[in-house]
UniProtKB/TrEMBL annotation:
GO terms for cellular component: cytosol. It comes from the Bacteria. SUPFAM superfamilies: Bacterial luciferase-like. Gene3D superfamilies: Luciferase-like domain (3.20.20.30). InterPro entries: Bact_Lucif_Oxidored (IPR050766), Lucif-like_OxRdatse_MSMEG_4141 (IPR019922), Luciferase-like_dom (IPR011251), Luciferase-like_sf (IPR036661). It comes from Paractinoplanes ferrugineus. Pfam families: Bac_luciferase (PF00296). Residues 19-259 form the Luciferase-like domain. This is LLM class F420-dependent oxidoreductase.
Length: 287
């Protein structure tokens, strides 16, 4: 990839109070120059209608699922949606797929088995349904899933990672594949307040083995992972501070090899209001 893309990852687009409110926010991001909007497909059996609503309500900005879980959605449905989106909005929809987490798929761990093999089977089904590899990416963290993303998709969309992971993922994917990490940020210059907002976010993710095992590969310890994360870990995962300081943290991922960074502005867990001021401030620096 040669063009640096600056994108948005925001749960608001699934939790917005109305379709029109979501489209209004997407339209402003488009006007500011952001490249793509990422948001979760949730855990229902069907892909949320919001993806189609945003595509129809905007003109240029891309829309991506970050992610659609392979345990809840069918390959046939996702391939059909991607095909329809490609016809109506060429080049604008990207299907992000992931294996999610055992704790979110089933409480007793009886269904979540062999996630790598499940992903291979799912990709086989997407191939059979005619979905081209360039229209899908994988939520890849570890070496095997990064290799699968390289060989069977357009690239990788890592979540809850550090710039060190981005630097490892770049050569694993190779130069011809998209590397688009999500990066959560806090626009708050006072350290105690910024880290308090960050820990509202990190506390839940640090209970999920997929993320903690990945962090341990880079030398983070049990002490770092406890209590919502050590200051050092919080600072490494979540850039915080003034818009300029946050932009500098995002730049670390580009320097490490990211083609695209999907910025998630943390606003205390409120998924029903859109942090427009923060995205305007970051756009003035990054775009």
């Amino acid at each position: 990839m040669t063009q640096r893309l600056v994108s948005v990852w925001q749960p608001y687009f699934l939790g917005a109070p109305s379709s029109s409110a979501a489209v209004d926010a997407a339209t402003e991001l488009e006007e500011l120059g952001y490249s793509r909007i990422w948001f979760s497909a949730g855990f229902g059996e069907n892909l949320p209608a919001r993806f189609g609503e945003l595509l129809a309500g905007t003109r240029r900005i891309g829309v991506a699922s970050g992610i659609a879980t392979i345990w809840h959605t069918s390959p046939a449905e996702l391939a059909a949606f991607a095909a329809a989106a490609a016809n109506a909005h060429p080049g604008r929809f990207l299907l992000g797929l992931g294996t999610s987490h055992a704790a979110l798929v089933d409480g007793d761990h009886t269904r979540y088995r062999r996630p790598y093999s499940k992903m291979v089977e799912y990709l086989d089904a997407l191939d059979a349904a005619g979905l081209p590899t360039e229209r899908r990416v994988l939520a890849a963290l570890g070496p095997r899933m990064l290799e699968l993303a390289r060989d069977r998709s357009a690239g990788a969309h890592p979540y809850f990672t550090t710039a060190e992971h981005t630097a490892e993922a770049r050569p694993a994917l190779g130069p011809g594949r998209l590397l688009a990490p999500e990066v959560a940020v806090v626009l708050e210059a006072e350290a105690t307040r910024a880290r308090a907002v960050a820990r509202q976010y990190t506390a839940g993710y640090l209970k999920l083995p997929n993320y903690t095992n990945n962090l341990r590969r880079f030398g983070w310890t049990d002490e770092d992972l406890a209590g919502g994360g050590s200051d050092r870990l919080v600072d490494a995962v979540i850039p915080w501070g003034t818009p300029e300081q946050v932009a500098a943290g995002i730049e670390k991922h580009y320097r490490a090899g990211a083609d695209e960074v999907a910025i998630q502005v943390l606003n205390g867990g409120d998924h029903t209001s859109f942090p427009a001021d923060a995205f305007r401030a970051l756009a003035a620096i990054l775009l």
